[in-house]
């Protein structure tokens, strides 16, 4: 059960890039504090950003001003400060090969600053960010489809490629994925739980014996967290949106008050009765309880691992287990990707970079070193999984995960659904509370 960390074998080209610091998402997030904001950035991205901020503690404070496009550069890429050092190396290599000047610029709020700059034709040619920004970007007309061959498409994991699609078109090249799993303190819980009921029972036994304070922890908070609640809401076939004839998310078919979603919410109510869900647990509290060895299980994402390692806790990563009656919790899948701006000053060069560089194993491995997320390119994922059991475990935990809806209507979901789940954990009737959330979400979408 002891965790081992293997150094990933990478090629000499990627080895040149290891000077970058680690730290998503959505970087995303995931992002990634966990409360949904009115801007509707997903909670995973907010928690991920918080984790990266911790890693950057002690560094000089970065400017919060939006970057200004370098007029002397023929290919401009915007990203966050974590990935920028790696991208700079690859962009310079691309520039040498094609005889052009490149520039990688750091944006402190990539999503908003890109939208603002694109509106005045001052944006980059390429922007790096979370897949769930896609619908809004397409709606605003600020990104272009990526012309990816079928052979290249087949090089990526199926779910990561699916996350780059909107209305049947590919709008980005994916490079990393993330999802929730069970992080287990192996000193307290040596074996992976077979069911959620077993997880709760084992955790409660440890509490009763005085060896733990909580049977498990995950983010709820007083305002709720729809991202962390989703695995339960989806466990019986429920969720947020239904799908259209093309298999895409249908904003006109909100299923928050469906029987299946309510059944999942009833499991949340049961978990709350067992003190496995608690509105007093926010992101910092969750991390603290697990790092101090006061709970055997933490349902969270890879952005929490640096804190666990810093606490010198031996751990394992498991998929979220099923319920005994067959309920199968399905977490969200977050994907990080490269977009090509519709206002790119050099669209041909932008398409060439994302298709010929981002799709290489060397570059995907270099980006892995910065974020420690499972790569989206299958060959890169196989390489790191063979050397790093964490990545293999995260990949298994994310198997079958549902790509987070990338339609603009998700902006109407985070706050109402998050608050509804917090209220359910506090004792509100699941059916009544989700029916009210459904009405609010539908109203918000219609505005």
Automatic annotation (TrEMBL):
What does the record list as coiled-coil region(s)? none
Signal peptide annotation: 1-22
What are its GO cellular component terms?
A: ATP-binding cassette (ABC) transporter complex, substrate-binding subunit-containing
Pfam family of the protein (one)? SBP_bac_8
Q: Acidic residues bias: where?
A: 38-58
Keywords recorded for this protein, A-Z: Signal, Sugar transport, Transport
List the SUPFAM superfamilies.
Answer: Periplasmic binding protein-like II
Residue ranges of the region described as Disordered = 22-71
Q: Which GO terms describe its molecular function?
A: carbohydrate transmembrane transporter activity; maltose binding
Q: Name one GO biological process term.
A: maltose transport
Highest taxon of source: Bacteria
Record InterPro entries: Maltose/Cyclodextrin-bd, SBP
The entry sums up its family as follows:
Belongs to the bacterial solute-binding protein 1 family.
- Protein name stated in the entry: Maltose/maltodextrin ABC transporter, substrate binding periplasmic protein MalE
């Amino acid at each position: 059960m002891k965790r081992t960390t293997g150094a990933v074998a990478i090629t000499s080209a990627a080895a040149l890039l290891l000077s970058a610091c680690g730290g998503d998402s959505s970087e995303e997030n995931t992002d990634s504090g966990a409360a949904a904001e009115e801007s509707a950035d997903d909670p995973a991205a907010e928690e991920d950003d918080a984790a990266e901020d911790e890693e950057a503690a002690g560094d000089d404070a970065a400017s919060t001003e939006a970057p200004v496009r370098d007029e002397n550069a023929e290919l401009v890429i915007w990203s966050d400060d974590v990935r920028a050092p790696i991208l700079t190396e690859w962009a310079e290599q691309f520039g040498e090969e094609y005889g052009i000047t490149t520039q990688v610029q750091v944006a402190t709020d990539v999503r908003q600053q890109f939208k603002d700059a694109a509106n005045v034709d001052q944006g980059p040619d390429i922007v790096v960010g979370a897949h769930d920004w896609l619908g809004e970007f397409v709606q605003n007309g600020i990104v272009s489809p990526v012309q990816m061959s079928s052979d290249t498409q087949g090089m990526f994991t199926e779910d990561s490629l699916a996350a780059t699609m909107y209305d049947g078109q590919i709008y980005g090249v994916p490079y990393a994925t993330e999802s929730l799993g069970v992080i287990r303190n192996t000193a307290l819980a040596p074996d992976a739980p077979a069911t959620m009921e077993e997880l709760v029972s084992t955790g409660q036994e440890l509490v009763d014996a005085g060896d733990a304070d909580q049977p498990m922890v995950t983010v709820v908070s007083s305002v709720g967290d729809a991202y962390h609640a989703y695995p339960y809401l989806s466990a019986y076939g429920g969720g947020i949106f239904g799908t259209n004839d093309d298999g895409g998310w249908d904003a006109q078919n909100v299923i928050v008050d469906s029987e299946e979603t309510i059944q999942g919410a009833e499991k949340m109510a049961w978990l709350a009765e067992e003190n496995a869900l608690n509105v007093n647990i926010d992101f910092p509290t969750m991390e603290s309880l697990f790092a101090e060895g006061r709970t055997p299980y933490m349902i969270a994402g890879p952005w929490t691992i640096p804190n666990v390692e810093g606490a010198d806790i031996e751990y394992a990563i498991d998929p979220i287990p099923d319920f005994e009656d067959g309920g199968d919790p399905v977490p969200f899948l977050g994907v990080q990707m490269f977009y090509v701006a519709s206002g790119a000053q050099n669209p041909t060069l932008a398409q060439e970079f994302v298709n010929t560089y981002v799709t290489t194993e060397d570059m995907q491995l270099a980006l892995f070193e910065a974020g420690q997320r499972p790569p989206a390119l299958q060959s890169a994922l196989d390489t790191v999984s063979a050397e790093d059991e964490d990545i293999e475990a995260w990949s298994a935990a994310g198997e079958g995960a549902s790509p987070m809806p990338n339609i603009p209507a998700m902006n109407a979901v985070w706050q109402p659904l998050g608050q509804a789940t917090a209220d359910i954990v506090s004792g509100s009737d699941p059916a009544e509370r989700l029916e009210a959330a459904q009405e609010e979400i539908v109203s918000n979408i219609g505005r």
